[in-house]
Structures are given as structure tokens and as C-alpha cells.
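C-alpha cells as discussed.
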């Protein structure tokens, strides 16, 4: 039997509040979804609003306040952190996403709140313009214009907004590797793989590139040497979609491009691991085996269950991603005179990620800026010149993840390119070592910043360095931002 409110212990009160808040989250989930389907005077919708208001008034009566707060990927009610179980995870996830879309950090219900206030707020929240330049202002302003007086809003803190996006981007990155691993482990690749899941994954990749391209590109610095093919495929997917976006492909085309890049090396499933990881030079027989993976990849993709949902370009990319611009490379073409646009894009991303990844059989791996220099030197023989030029512009003269030395003797990591073409040499960097060589958790600084007293730039890059020689793991920075 539940003790009367005035006889409960502090812990009992917190538990009761938590239970009440979870019920409100579940009810809020139903209302926001219903507001998108039903008219404002629909009886089912109004009944849900009434039930939510009953819970709300109970909280106000017992605790004197009622406010929901979104911090990072966590929801709080009256300063109590809300925990969820497996059964109600999807309710929390949906509501958290709704806070994120409107950049809403806190919503507070005053004791005088009315049913009309709640109904109006829910309709605005559910149907408001999440694509507005300032979604929070659009939500708040419309509520005021409609006469809502007893519900107030606070904007999400910039740090929370950025952090939650980075957390989500990192989650998508590792979910992608897990999804591809399931396909590889299925043997023939027909039983476990869900192309519907793949397509939703690519839609998430596109969304994150649109929201925070520099950070998502930074994740491609992650190099898992034990799962090279999985990690490499995810990196190639991200770089390909980012380049396709720069080229003006629409959302559906970018999703198809992402799927094609994601499965580009699927044929390596049949390549013996001892050949893939051989530390020395391949002999003629081994080279012949590894050059079969384009055919094998295309064949396996054709066998997918739900093959009709697979972009036809995915088959072409699996077959063509090692064909050079001058039509050499492998496999050899005798009649075809050109390759698919997606194949040309994926080839660029594939080459870049491969040469910047240490491998047992390669005597040298390139820094990211060295890789771009190498690719430019290959010219129109290896890559389509226009696509390569756009890729180099996208990556910047100092690609995200480059480890650099500054004229102040500080060491830094490039974390974001400067969008101003006149300041391509001046990206944003995170300081990670001082002039004496002492490692530190430094701030992010803009190399385009000018000292007002001298009129000169405060810092300038003088050299790109090999992070491995300094014991720096570049991927750690981007992972730390997401955890």
C-alpha cells in the first residue's frame, strides 16, 4: 500500500515523481503523434490532452512545479533524471528527438495552466517548422501569438545541442559497422541483411552530414585495424555522401549513393583473410584472387533478399570502384567506355581512406594532406578531374583530423575548415600541446582570428605532422566529443 504523501520518505517521493514523469512522457509521445494526424477538435486527441493535464496538475499539486528539461541525450523532470527500460525506450527516444528538433531545452508548466494552453502548445510543437532557421524562436513566438500564458520555454544550450548531435553521429557510425558486420557474418549475405535498415541508416548519415559535416568527416579518422573492411566501408560511405552533397545530388540520390558506397567492398567476403592481411607483396596468384572481389561483390548483391529495393548503382559500384579514369585498373572492360558517376565518386573516397590507413603490407601510409597531394599528382589518369577537384575543396588544404604545428610552437588538431575561401589556410584547430611540448586539453581556436593590437593573425600553421610520431591518436579526439 502506498503511504500518504505527507508520510513518504524523500526516496519514496523521488520514486513517485519518477513514475509520474514516465507516465507523462508516454502520454506526451501519444499527443505529439496524434497532433500530426488529427484535427485540434478531434475527441481522441482532446482526450489525450485531458489525461496529460491530469498528470500535470497532480505534479503541480504535490511538488509545486512541473518542468521537463532536455540535456544532451537525457530527460529530466523537476530536476530528477528520468531512466527508461526496454519497454518504454521508444517513447523516450521520440520525445527526446522532438526536443532536439525544436532546440527546446526546457518547457515549464505554471500552476495556472489550462487545457487550452496544453492543447495549443502541443499542436505548435508537433506541427511547427523544424526546418526554420531558428526552430526554438518559431515555437516560442507562435505560442505567444496564440495567447499561451502559462507555459514557458527555454532554449537548448548550444553545448547540449552540439553534444547530442555528435553523440548521435558517432552512434550512427558504429551502428553502420555493426549492420555491415551482420551482412558479412550471414555468409551468403541473404538471410540477415535488411535493406530497409540500410536505407534508414543512410538517411541518418545524410542528416548528420547536413547538420555537422566537419565532425562527421572527423569520424573517418577512426581506424579499426582488426575490422578494416567494416571500418573502411563506413568511412568511404561518409566521404562519398559528403562529396555527392557538394556535387548537388538530391536526398534520394545521396541515400542511394550511400548504400552503394556502403556495400562497395562486399566481395571481399570471399577473399581469404591471409591474402587481405598479407604483410608482403602479393604474388600473381594472390593478386588474381583479390582482383576478383568486384565480380564477387556484384554477384552477392544481386542475391540479396529484397534485391528490388537495392539501387542498381550499388551493383555498378561494386563492380567498377577499381576502374581508373583511363579505363585501366580492374576488372578489365572491353566494350564499356565509361563508368557510373557513383563509381567515380566512391573510387575517390575509397582511395583516400585506403592510403591514409596503416596496413601491414604497406611500407608507408599518408597523412590526409599528403593523400590529397598524391591524388592530385595522379591527375586525370586515375580520377575524374572535376570530381577530384571538388573532393579536394571539400577536404580543405588541411583536412579535418590533420595534426599540425603552429608558429607559436603549439601543436594542434584541425577540427573544422574555414568556410571563407580566402581563409582556406586558417581552419579551426584544437590546441593539444603547448610551446614546451606538454600535452593539454586546450581550447578550440580560429586561426582566422586577428590580434587587434598588431593587426596580425594570432596563430599560423607552419607544418603538417605525423601524429603517430608524437603518440597522438587523432580518432580519440572525435570519440571524446561524442561520449
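Sequence:
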Amino acid at each position: 500500500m502506498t503511504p500518504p504523501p505527507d508520510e513518504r520518505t524523500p526516496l519514496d517521493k523521488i520514486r513517485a515523481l519518477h513514475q509520474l514523469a514516465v507516465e507523462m512522457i508516454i502520454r506526451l509521445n501519444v499527443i505529439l503523434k496524434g497532433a500530426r494526424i488529427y484535427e485540434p477538435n478531434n475527441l481522441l486527441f482532446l482526450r489525450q490532452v485531458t489525461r496529460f493535464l491530469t498528470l500535470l496538475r497532480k505534479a503541480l499539486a504535490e511538488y509545486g512545479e512541473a518542468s521537463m528539461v532536455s540535456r544532451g541525450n537525457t530527460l529530466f523532470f523537476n530536476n530528477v533524471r528520468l531512466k527508461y527500460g526496454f519497454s518504454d525506450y521508444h517513447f523516450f527516444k521520440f520525445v527526446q528527438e522532438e526536443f532536439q528538433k525544436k532546440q527546446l531545452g526546457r518547457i515549464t508548466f505554471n500552476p495556472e495552466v489550462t487545457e487550452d494552453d496544453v492543447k495549443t502548445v502541443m499542436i505548435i510543437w508537433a506541427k511547427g517548422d523544424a526546418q526554420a532557421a531558428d526552430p526554438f524562436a518559431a515555437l516560442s513566438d507562435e505560442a505567444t501569438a496564440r495567447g499561451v500564458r502559462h507555459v514557458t520555454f527555454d532554449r537548448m544550450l548550444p553545448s547540449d545541442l552540439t553534444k547530442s548531435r555528435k553523440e548521435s553521429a558517432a552512434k550512427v557510425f558504429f551502428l553502420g559497422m555493426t549492420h555491415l558486420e551482420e551482412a558479412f557474418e550471414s555468409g551468403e549475405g541473404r538471410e540477415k541483411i535488411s535493406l530497409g535498415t540500410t536505407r534508414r541508416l543512410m538517411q541518418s548519415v545524410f542528416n548528420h552530414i547536413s547538420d555537422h559535416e566537419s565532425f562527421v568527416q572527423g569520424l573517418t579518422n577512426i581506424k579499426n585495424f582488426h575490422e578494416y573492411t567494416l571500418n573502411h566501408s563506413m568511412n568511404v560511405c561518409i566521404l562519398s555522401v559528403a562529396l555527392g552533397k557538394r556535387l548537388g545530388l538530391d536526398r534520394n540520390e545521396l541515400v542511394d549513393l550511400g548504400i552503394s558506397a556502403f556495400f562497395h567492398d562486399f566481395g571481399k567476403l570471399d577473399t581469404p583473410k591471409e591474402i587481405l592481411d598479407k604483410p608482403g607483396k602479393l604474388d600473381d596468384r594472390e593478386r588474381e584472387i583479390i582482383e576478383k572481389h568486384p565480380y564477387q561483390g556484384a554477384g552477392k548483391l544481386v542475391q540479396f533478399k529484397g534485391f528490388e529495393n537495392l539501387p542498381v548503382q550499388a551493383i555498378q559500384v561494386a563492380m567498377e570502384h577499381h576502374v581508373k579514369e583511363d579505363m585501366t585498373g580492374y576488372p578489365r572492360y572491353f566494350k564499356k567506355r565509361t563508368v557510373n558517376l557513383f563509381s567515380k565518386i566512391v573510387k575517390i573516397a575509397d582511395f583516400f581512406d585506403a592510403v591514409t590507413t596503416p596496413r601491414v603490407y604497406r611500407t608507408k601510409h599518408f597523412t590526409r594532406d599528403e593523400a590529397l597531394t598524391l591524388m592530385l599528382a595522379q591527375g586525370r589518369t586515375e580520377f575524374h578531374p572535376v570530381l577530384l577537384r571538388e573532393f579536394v575543396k571539400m577536404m580543405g588544404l588541411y583536412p579535418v583530423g590533420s595534426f599540425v604545428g603552429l608558429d607559436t610552437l603549439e601543436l594542434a588538431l584541425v577540427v573544422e575548415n574555414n568556410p571563407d575561401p580566402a581563409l582556406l589556410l586558417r581552419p579551426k584547430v584544437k590546441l593539444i600541446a603547448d610551446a614546451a611540448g606538454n600535452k593539454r586539453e586546450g581550447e578550440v581556436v580560429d586561426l582566422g582570428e586577428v590580434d587587434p593590437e598588431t593587426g596580425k593573425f594570432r596563430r599560423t600553421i607552419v607544418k603538417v605532422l605525423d601524429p603517430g610520431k608524437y603518440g597522438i591518436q587523432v580518432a580519440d579526439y572525435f570519440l571524446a566529443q561524442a561520449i
